[in-house]
Design goal:
alpha/beta, 2 domains, two-stranded antiparallel sheet, Ribosomal Protein L4, Chain: A
Length: 220
Protein backbone atom coordinates (compact mmCIF):
# COMPACT_ATOMS: atom_id res chain seq x y z
CA UNK A 1 0.00 0.00 0.00
CA UNK A 2 1.29 3.43 -0.95
CA UNK A 3 0.55 6.47 1.20
CA UNK A 4 1.38 10.17 0.68
CA UNK A 5 4.36 11.59 2.52
CA UNK A 6 3.93 15.16 3.76
CA UNK A 7 6.48 17.78 4.67
CA UNK A 8 6.17 20.09 7.66
CA UNK A 9 4.15 22.53 5.54
CA UNK A 10 1.51 19.85 4.94
CA UNK A 11 2.40 19.43 1.26
CA UNK A 12 2.68 16.04 -0.41
CA UNK A 13 6.27 15.58 -1.50
CA UNK A 14 6.38 11.86 -2.33
CA UNK A 15 4.76 8.50 -1.70
CA UNK A 16 5.91 5.72 0.59
CA UNK A 17 5.35 1.99 0.18
CA UNK A 18 4.18 0.58 3.50
CA UNK A 19 5.16 -2.93 4.46
CA UNK A 20 2.03 -5.07 3.87
CA UNK A 21 3.00 -7.47 6.65
CA UNK A 22 2.84 -4.61 9.15
CA UNK A 23 0.11 -2.31 7.84
CA UNK A 24 -2.13 -4.88 6.15
CA UNK A 25 -1.98 -7.60 8.76
CA UNK A 26 -4.90 -9.67 9.97
CA UNK A 27 -6.68 -7.70 12.70
CA UNK A 28 -6.83 -9.72 15.90
CA UNK A 29 -8.88 -7.74 18.41
CA UNK A 30 -8.62 -10.28 21.28
CA UNK A 31 -4.84 -10.28 20.90
CA UNK A 32 -4.75 -6.46 20.99
CA UNK A 33 -6.90 -6.55 24.13
CA UNK A 34 -4.58 -9.08 25.75
CA UNK A 35 -1.56 -6.90 25.00
CA UNK A 36 -3.32 -3.85 26.43
CA UNK A 37 -4.37 -5.66 29.61
CA UNK A 38 -0.81 -6.93 30.05
CA UNK A 39 0.63 -3.44 29.69
CA UNK A 40 -1.84 -1.91 32.14
CA UNK A 41 -1.24 -4.70 34.64
CA UNK A 42 2.54 -4.38 34.43
CA UNK A 43 2.22 -0.65 35.10
CA UNK A 44 0.61 -1.30 38.48
CA UNK A 45 2.93 -0.99 41.47
CA UNK A 46 1.00 -3.40 43.67
CA UNK A 47 2.04 -1.59 46.86
CA UNK A 48 -1.46 -1.39 48.36
CA UNK A 49 -1.79 -2.82 51.83
CA UNK A 50 -4.31 -3.05 54.67
CA UNK A 51 -3.86 -4.22 58.25
CA UNK A 52 -5.40 -7.43 59.46
CA UNK A 53 -6.73 -7.76 62.99
CA UNK A 54 -3.38 -9.20 64.04
CA UNK A 55 -1.47 -6.20 62.67
CA UNK A 56 -3.79 -3.51 64.05
CA UNK A 57 -2.41 -2.04 67.28
CA UNK A 58 -5.33 -1.48 69.63
CA UNK A 59 -5.88 -2.34 73.24
CA UNK A 60 -5.80 -6.02 74.13
CA UNK A 61 -8.20 -5.55 77.03
CA UNK A 62 -11.59 -7.20 76.84
CA UNK A 63 -14.08 -4.66 75.57
CA UNK A 64 -16.80 -5.38 78.14
CA UNK A 65 -17.58 -8.16 80.54
CA UNK A 66 -18.58 -11.54 79.20
CA UNK A 67 -22.06 -11.75 80.74
CA UNK A 68 -24.82 -9.51 81.96
CA UNK A 69 -24.75 -6.79 79.32
CA UNK A 70 -27.20 -8.34 76.89
CA UNK A 71 -24.69 -7.89 74.09
CA UNK A 72 -22.81 -10.47 72.08
CA UNK A 73 -19.53 -11.57 73.67
CA UNK A 74 -16.43 -9.94 72.29
CA UNK A 75 -12.84 -10.16 73.36
CA UNK A 76 -11.01 -7.86 70.93
CA UNK A 77 -11.49 -4.43 69.49
CA UNK A 78 -9.37 -5.47 66.49
CA UNK A 79 -12.20 -7.53 64.98
CA UNK A 80 -13.10 -6.47 61.41
CA UNK A 81 -16.73 -5.80 62.38
CA UNK A 82 -15.72 -2.80 64.51
CA UNK A 83 -14.74 0.68 63.35
CA UNK A 84 -10.98 0.99 63.69
CA UNK A 85 -10.52 -2.75 63.62
CA UNK A 86 -8.61 -4.83 61.10
CA UNK A 87 -9.64 -5.43 57.50
CA UNK A 88 -10.74 -8.92 56.51
CA UNK A 89 -9.39 -10.22 53.19
CA UNK A 90 -7.97 -6.79 52.30
CA UNK A 91 -5.33 -6.20 49.61
CA UNK A 92 -1.70 -6.98 50.30
CA UNK A 93 1.40 -6.04 48.29
CA UNK A 94 1.85 -8.35 45.32
CA UNK A 95 2.93 -8.28 41.69
CA UNK A 96 0.42 -7.88 38.86
CA UNK A 97 2.99 -8.75 36.21
CA UNK A 98 1.71 -10.67 33.19
CA UNK A 99 3.78 -12.48 30.59
CA UNK A 100 3.21 -12.48 26.84
CA UNK A 101 5.44 -14.03 24.18
CA UNK A 102 7.29 -11.62 21.93
CA UNK A 103 5.67 -12.92 18.74
CA UNK A 104 2.24 -12.30 20.23
CA UNK A 105 3.22 -8.77 21.24
CA UNK A 106 4.52 -8.06 17.75
CA UNK A 107 1.37 -9.48 16.17
CA UNK A 108 -0.71 -7.19 18.40
CA UNK A 109 1.32 -4.19 17.21
CA UNK A 110 0.79 -5.17 13.57
CA UNK A 111 -2.95 -5.44 14.17
CA UNK A 112 -2.94 -2.05 15.87
CA UNK A 113 -1.05 -0.35 13.02
CA UNK A 114 -3.38 -1.93 10.49
CA UNK A 115 -6.39 -0.53 12.34
CA UNK A 116 -4.84 2.93 12.64
CA UNK A 117 -4.05 3.04 8.92
CA UNK A 118 -7.52 1.85 7.96
CA UNK A 119 -9.04 4.59 10.11
CA UNK A 120 -6.72 7.20 8.53
CA UNK A 121 -5.12 8.02 11.86
CA UNK A 122 -1.54 7.64 10.60
CA UNK A 123 0.27 10.61 9.07
CA UNK A 124 3.61 9.93 7.36
CA UNK A 125 6.04 12.84 7.10
CA UNK A 126 9.41 13.07 5.42
CA UNK A 127 11.16 14.54 8.47
CA UNK A 128 10.53 16.42 11.71
CA UNK A 129 13.18 18.96 12.57
CA UNK A 130 12.30 22.29 14.14
CA UNK A 131 14.74 25.21 13.77
CA UNK A 132 14.12 26.22 17.39
CA UNK A 133 12.46 24.22 20.20
CA UNK A 134 9.47 26.52 20.51
CA UNK A 135 5.90 25.46 21.27
CA UNK A 136 4.49 27.85 18.68
CA UNK A 137 6.62 26.18 16.00
CA UNK A 138 5.24 22.78 16.97
CA UNK A 139 1.67 24.10 16.89
CA UNK A 140 2.28 25.50 13.41
CA UNK A 141 3.50 22.11 12.14
CA UNK A 142 0.54 20.26 13.68
CA UNK A 143 -1.87 22.69 12.02
CA UNK A 144 -0.15 22.22 8.68
CA UNK A 145 -0.52 18.45 9.03
CA UNK A 146 -4.23 18.85 9.93
CA UNK A 147 -4.00 16.64 13.01
CA UNK A 148 -6.37 17.23 15.90
CA UNK A 149 -7.13 15.73 19.28
CA UNK A 150 -4.51 13.62 20.99
CA UNK A 151 -1.37 13.25 18.88
CA UNK A 152 1.48 10.76 19.22
CA UNK A 153 4.76 11.57 17.45
CA UNK A 154 7.10 8.65 16.80
CA UNK A 155 10.81 9.41 16.66
CA UNK A 156 13.61 7.19 15.40
CA UNK A 157 16.03 8.65 17.98
CA UNK A 158 16.25 11.44 20.50
CA UNK A 159 15.10 14.72 18.96
CA UNK A 160 15.53 17.42 21.58
CA UNK A 161 14.03 20.22 19.49
CA UNK A 162 10.77 18.34 18.87
CA UNK A 163 10.56 16.91 22.38
CA UNK A 164 11.03 20.31 24.01
CA UNK A 165 8.66 22.01 21.58
CA UNK A 166 5.71 19.74 22.39
CA UNK A 167 6.44 19.42 26.10
CA UNK A 168 3.87 22.08 27.02
CA UNK A 169 1.16 20.67 24.76
CA UNK A 170 -1.08 18.49 26.96
CA UNK A 171 -2.45 16.41 24.09
CA UNK A 172 0.82 15.79 22.26
CA UNK A 173 3.34 13.10 23.23
CA UNK A 174 6.57 11.85 21.72
CA UNK A 175 7.78 8.26 21.77
CA UNK A 176 10.74 6.38 20.36
CA UNK A 177 9.53 4.10 17.58
CA UNK A 178 11.23 1.14 19.22
CA UNK A 179 8.98 1.60 22.27
CA UNK A 180 5.71 1.72 20.36
CA UNK A 181 2.95 0.06 22.38
CA UNK A 182 -0.74 -0.67 22.10
CA UNK A 183 -1.90 1.65 24.88
CA UNK A 184 -0.22 4.84 23.67
CA UNK A 185 -1.07 4.29 20.00
CA UNK A 186 -4.74 3.35 20.42
CA UNK A 187 -5.33 6.29 22.79
CA UNK A 188 -4.09 8.75 20.15
CA UNK A 189 -6.35 10.32 17.54
CA UNK A 190 -3.42 10.68 15.13
CA UNK A 191 0.03 9.10 14.98
CA UNK A 192 2.74 11.05 13.14
CA UNK A 193 5.47 8.81 11.72
CA UNK A 194 8.56 10.28 10.03
CA UNK A 195 10.23 8.11 7.40
CA UNK A 196 13.15 7.42 9.73
CA UNK A 197 10.77 6.11 12.42
CA UNK A 198 8.93 4.09 9.77
CA UNK A 199 12.20 2.35 8.98
CA UNK A 200 12.61 1.47 12.66
CA UNK A 201 9.13 -0.05 12.77
CA UNK A 202 9.80 -2.12 9.66
CA UNK A 203 13.11 -3.37 11.07
CA UNK A 204 11.39 -4.51 14.28
CA UNK A 205 8.03 -5.80 13.04
CA UNK A 206 8.82 -6.84 9.47
CA UNK A 207 11.47 -9.47 10.04
CA UNK A 208 9.14 -12.43 9.90
CA UNK A 209 8.77 -11.96 6.15
CA UNK A 210 12.42 -12.95 5.78
CA UNK A 211 12.08 -16.29 7.54
CA UNK A 212 10.49 -19.62 6.83
CA UNK A 213 7.32 -20.33 8.81
CA UNK A 214 7.55 -22.28 12.05
CA UNK A 215 11.33 -22.16 12.34
CA UNK A 216 11.91 -21.69 16.03
CA UNK A 217 12.80 -18.26 17.38
CA UNK A 218 14.05 -16.66 14.18
CA UNK A 219 12.61 -13.30 13.34
CA UNK A 220 11.84 -12.29 16.91
Amino acid sequence: MRVPVLNMQGETVQEAELHPEIFEARVNIPLMHQALVRQLANARQGTHSTKTRGENNRTKAKWFRQKGTGRARHGSRNAPIFVGGGVAHGPKPHSYKKQMPRKMRQAALRSMLTVLLAEERIVVVDALQLPVPKTKEAIKVLRNLAVTGKVLILLSKDNESVERAVRNLPKVDTLRAGYLNVRDALSADHVIIPLSALGVLESILGKTSQQKPMTGSEGE
